[in-house]
Write a structure and sequence with these properties.
Blueprint lengths: L4 E5 L3 H13 L3 E5 L2 H10 L4 E4 L8 H9 L6 E5 L4 H9 L4 E4 L4 H24 L4 E3 L2 E4 L4 E4 L2 E3 L3 H12 L7 H8 L8 H15 L10 E4 L3 E4 L2
Length: 232
């Protein structure tokens, strides 16, 4: 059986050690980094399955580390941060994180979130290997197994969550999903007070990347008071 490797990146050694202790009990292999550059180096040199990442780190902050990781890799990233407002959480999720845990934190809750993200990641990879057909609507083409999107033949660079939202909507054309529906299916957890804003910000960015300001096709339709639907 493959050993699952988790990178813990936090400039506070006590926190990194605490997280490592609980993950080792679950049978995971752990790597640790204490600044952003060390975190990137660890991802580049090792087959990392999930990253637990502090935001405020020396040399490179967690946002920049996430941006660089997302240029080539799609493993789950969980922010573990003292920045605890809803706006902070939304900013973290929009910048490419899959989950956000605030400090101080319950180590067992963090382990549960790690397990949930790994489960979702492995289920997606298994589905991809089984083979999935591309989704196409006009000039928009989605390749689920490659997690790639093309618009009129040109690649569209999406974050993992933007891709997941588009893929969810495109699989069920015309079906209306509420913000809570989208959040529960894409983030894999029940809604919280900032759910609507989180989804709205992702939808807004996704629309911009799909060129909805310049192309006549409106891929994502807002159904006022209800939610969103794919208009392909």
């Amino acid at each position: 059986m493959k050993t699952i490797t988790i990178l813990i990146a936090d400039d506070e050694a006590e926190i990194a050690d605490l997280v490592e202790l609980h993950l080792l009990k679950e049978g995971y292999r752990c790597l640790k980094a204490y600044d952003g550059l060390q975190a990137l180096e660890a991802v580049q040199k090792n087959a990392v399955d999930l990253v637990i990442l502090d935001i405020m780190m020396p040399k490179l902050d967690g946002y920049e580390v996430t941006r660089q990781i997302r240029e080539s890799q799609h493993m789950p990233i969980i922010f573990l941060s003292a920045k605890a407002t809803d706006l902070d959480k939304i900013a973290g999720l929009v910048r490419g994180a899959d989950d956000y845990v605030t400090k101080p934190f319950n180590p067992m809750e963090l382990v549960a979130r790690v397990n949930a993200q790994l489960r979702r990641s492995f289920q997606f990879n298994a589905s991809a290997k089984a083979g999935q057909n591309m989704l196409e609507a006009g000039g928009l083409v989605i390749y689920p197994e490659e997690r790639s999107v093309f618009l009129y033949g040109s690649p569209v660079e999406l974050t993992p969550k933007e891709f997941d939202i588009l893929h969810l909507l495109a699989r069920y054309p015309k079906k209306v999903f509420s913000s809570d529906n989208i959040f529960e299916q894409v983030w894999g957890e029940a809604h919280y007070d900032g759910t609507s804003n989180t989804v709205m910000v992702h939808i807004r960015t996704l629309r911009r990347k799909l060129g909805e300001d310049t192309n006549k096709n409106k891929w994502i339709k807002t159904v006022w008071g209800v939610g969103y639907a794919f208009n392909g």
